[in-house]
UniProtKB/TrEMBL annotation, chain A:
GO terms for biological process: methylation. Keywords: Membrane, Methyltransferase, Mitochondrion, Mitochondrion inner membrane, S-adenosyl-L-methionine, Transferase, Ubiquinone biosynthesis. It comes from Microthyrium microscopicum. Pfam families: Ubie_methyltran. Its main location: mitochondrion. Pathway: Cofactor biosynthesis; ubiquinone biosynthesis. This is 2-methoxy-6-polyprenyl-1,4-benzoquinol methylase, mitochondrial. Methyltransferase required for the conversion of 2-polyprenyl-6-methoxy-1,4-benzoquinol (DDMQH2) to 2-polyprenyl-3-methyl-6-methoxy-1,4-benzoquinol (DMQH2).
From TrEMBL, chain B:
One of its GO terms (cellular component) is mitochondrial inner membrane. It comes from Microthyrium microscopicum. One of its GO terms (biological process) is ubiquinone biosynthetic process. GO terms for molecular function: lyase activity. This is 4-hydroxy-3-methoxy-5-polyprenylbenzoate decarboxylase.
Amino acid sequence: MNSISISRSLRRLERLQRLHSTTLSQQYRCFSCSIRNQHETTKPPTSSSQSANYTHFGFETVAENLKQGKVAEVFSSVASSYDTMNDLMSLGIHRLWKDHFVRSLDPGINPILFSAPTSSPSTSSPAASSPSTPQGLNILDIAGGTGDVAFRMLDYASRIHNDSTTRVTVADINPEMLAAGRKRAASSPYSRANRLSFVEANAETLTTVPSSSVDLYTVAFGIRNFTNIPKALDEAYRVLKPGGVFACLEFSKVNNEAFNWAYKRWSFSAIPIIGQLVAGDRDSYQYLVESIERFPDQATFARMIQNAGFELPAKVGELGGGYEDLSGGIACIHKGVKPLEDTK
Amino acid sequence: PTYEGHVPLTSIERTALAVGSGVMAYFNPRRADLIALFGETTAQPFFINRLRNAMLKSPTGRRILRDRPRITSTSLSLPYLASLPTNTVGHTYYEWLEREKVSPDTRSAVRYIDDEECAYVMQRYRESHDFYHALTGLPTVREGEVALKCFEFANTGLPMTGLSVFNVFTLKAQERERFWGTYGPWAVRNGACSDDVINVYWEEEMETDVDELRTRLGIEKPPDLRDIRKQEREKRK
């Protein structure tokens, strides 16, 4: 071989190596690659054997202490167009999910029956003639952001149960989302009546919420963004009263193969495009669909809830398995009850 | 992906983005990111390649492609530009930045063009757009932008620039008359006959006299649109 062909083959080799290294090291976010990522067994260093320093941020791998900040960036940038984008991405179906979620929880008390006596009980039955104030439920809506679920619960309690004492505290880690929620609350009667408050809090360390003080803990489409889900579940267990209900509405795995194919195409192609056109931000929506991909499936998550000490409506694997699929598994409602006696 | 931030698109995705961004940008031309997106999704495969080849045909264009200079607020020293004599390209650009209250950083990165070199050509075009404003003296009001886009279409051939001219139908009647009567013909005449503005190495032309550059490229300065608009406003009062 003469020198020209040697240098040519060396150049070819170098080009091949460069191509090889870029295709392997970069995970990129086009649709087919997202599918390929699902099936890939070799993943970047997030194996459980290593110390928990890294976690997933969509399909990227980030240091655990950075994930919170990155999620914060995503939600700060989507906050202003959050509600519009939800309608566009789910074609309005998210409203049906949230309505069903609230209806199935049936929040609110019957103000005539459930009242605490203001004066000391008389010798006859406690619910006798003495005037009393109804004590409504104390609902904590985590990652409640713009208040979709909170408003629905208050409306439901007020209209269906005539309950004007149940109150909701919306907790969110992101101030921009809370600001959007407060703006909506200003045009509702609830904030003036002191039934709705917005606090900035991290679901993994709810320092401002005392233990055993919450009747109903809800989290809708928030838990998949948490850095440490078991920790958040433990906090939920702590703040709930014995007999209190934990309810989670979250994206999950679609059971049907054909429907799943269409769903994935919509998620990975259409949603980032809508994000680019409407919100001017493709990357945040790419993160959102990837985080859905990364969230554990129904049975796994139900077991996580069980491990935190909650009792599920059914055994995992039986009778619907302790959760309720919506829209074929696109969304799922998980519920749990904190047992009356501490069996943990 | 062939470069950092590159997002390969399928043809359905590309069409959806092109149509969506075109329609939305027509009704809301303030969304510069949509206009940029429209440019990227409609430039392939033919038009951006043609522009890249036009760069390759010129010696300066070839140097730009080799050096790959970027125009950002860090690569240009604004105090230096302010210190230059009044009729230089650098000083005119600086004055124009001050008058229009914009900064060199307002351009988004190219993501949807597949060939890496063509992506740079598109980025260069996007970053040079402000210099074209300074070169022609057209203001950043809708009327001025439409005229400049017409000029760019005649000069670079990118579809987005040509399609942007449809925005003339959203202008007021008097502005439209001015476009069809003066600025449109000026744009077509000058864009077609002058040298390719994409081949101007702006970083080296900062100290050149503006009129000398215009003569070299073969561009005549159009009537000052800002003055005309100011006069009309005065008349109406």
